[in-house]
Every structure is written in structure tokens, then in C-alpha cells.
Amino acid sequence: MVTVFTPTYNRAYRLEQLYNSLKRQTSKDFEWIVINDGSTDNTNELFDVWLKEENDFPIIYKEVENGGKHRGINKAVQMASSDAFFIVDSDDYILDDAIEKVNRWFSQIADDDSFAAVSGLKSEPDMKPVGGYGKFEGEYVDCTNLQRHLYNLLDDKAEVYKTSILKKYPFPEFEGEKFVPESLIWDSIARDGYKIRWFNEIIYICEYLPDGLSASSDKKFMESPKGFIAYLNMLETVHDPREVDVFRLQFYQNIINTYGTDRLIEIINMANKMKEEQK
């Protein structure tokens, strides 16, 4: 069984295409957990209707105070009743046989403690894989998230993690901040040696909207500096620190350009304190 998890914030105008794609699934061996992250649109009204409809899969809907996608993931992982956890964003949808394929691939690695996940491909609606197809012999390749570039597994992919792994690697939650880069967790799992079975089949359709998380990442970084600093500190454990410094300096320059040097000094002091606490 698979938990399909959807965090949503003011996406009522997009959610129906995902809902319809779930209703079309060739396998109904899944549950749908939706965390409404403080939406101010008509999302509640949609689910008032959908929860009363007859579906072949359970829908678990929860409204929370706006706190960011990472908090939603943490909540949903604790709520999940399946072994496989599949994040499908509210502006995306999955192909009709996606759950069937995920269950088939996941069953191959479910009892192997060296694996954290399986992953298919994402595509935009033109059915061309985001980042292209992986380059490897056979139907799949096994490697960590940090090794994926070796096989042309570039850009966003459709990972389905073991729920038990995500319970061991929760996202950090910082008071007053609403964003943590997801790679903080995915790369931490990879750093500890867990593999993913990557298969060369499209299962997930995405569109990168102008108001989506991907498009607004720089702004999110500046508004949630502790989350971004935690991400940079993790990167130093898996990459050359000199390369990470280039990334850090770009972040600091953006802070100066947007907020000024006084805010930069605050953030540098914050970063130093966080490093001391990690020792």
C-alpha cells in the first residue's frame, strides 16, 4: 500500500486534476493524505464534497495553521498507515498506472534495509521526462541520491520513500520559519548510505507554476535563514566545503541586496551559533 501525500496552499483551482487522476488509478491500493496548510481559498469546500463521494481509496484531510511544506510532511508521515510515502504536490497529478507501478517496484526493496526508496520519472505534460531519461543498462539502477548524476538522473524525480525512513529523518522545524529545502533530508539519507532504486518510467506529471515553491526559492531562503543555514551545514558534510562557500556567499549577497548589512550580520551570528550547537 502507498500513502499519497499532498500538501496544499491555495491550490483549489488545481486540485481537481490530481483528485481525478487518483480516481482513475488502475490500483486502488493507496490512501490520500492531504494537509491544507492554512489556505484562504475554497479548498475546504472542495473536500467537504469529495469526502462524501464514494471512492475506492480513503481520503484523510487535515487543516493546519500555515507553516510550510516541511511541517506538512512531518505531520503526514506520522499519520501514514502504509510502508511507502509518495509526495504528490497539489498542482501536479500522476499517470493512471502510477500506483500500480510504485507498488510493483516498492515490493522489490521493501524488506531490504539498504534501500530508502524507489523512484520513477517526472514529466511535464508533453511527456518528455524532466532532466531526460536515466542512462543505464536495464530497467533500473541502484544508487544513492548523491550518486544519481552518474546515471543522468537529473533534476526532479518521483521518489517514493519508506515511511519508516522518513520517521527517522524528520525535517527540522524552526520557530517563525516556513521553509526548509527538501534536499536537506534527501541528501542526509543518502549520506548515510541508503540507496534508491531508480526506474526509467514516467509516473508523475508536473508543471512549474510562477507562484510555486521552485520559482520562489531565493525568496524562501531569505525568509527562512535557519532552514537554509541547516541545509548549507549538511551540504558541507557531503560536498567540498569550498563549493558550498560559493553558494553561501551568493545567499549572503542576496541578503545584503534585499535587507542590508545589519540583517546579514544577524544571519552570520545565527549561523555561527547553529554550528556551535551542532558540535
From TrEMBL:
Output one GO MF annotation: hexosyltransferase activity
The record's listing under CDD domains reads: Glyco_tranf_GTA_type (cd00761)
Residue ranges of domain Glycosyltransferase 2-like in the record: 3-112
The leader peptide range reads: none
The record's listing under InterPro entries reads:
Glyco_trans_2-like, Nucleotide-diphossugar_trans
Record keywords, A-Z: Transferase
What PANTHER family does this protein's entry cite?
Answer: GLYCOSYLTRANSFERASE, UDP-GLCNAC:BETAGAL BETA-1,3-N-ACETYLGLUCOSAMINYLTRANSFERASE-LIKE PROTEIN 1
* The protein, known as: Glycosyl transferase GT2 family
Tell me which species this is from.
Butyrivibrio hungatei
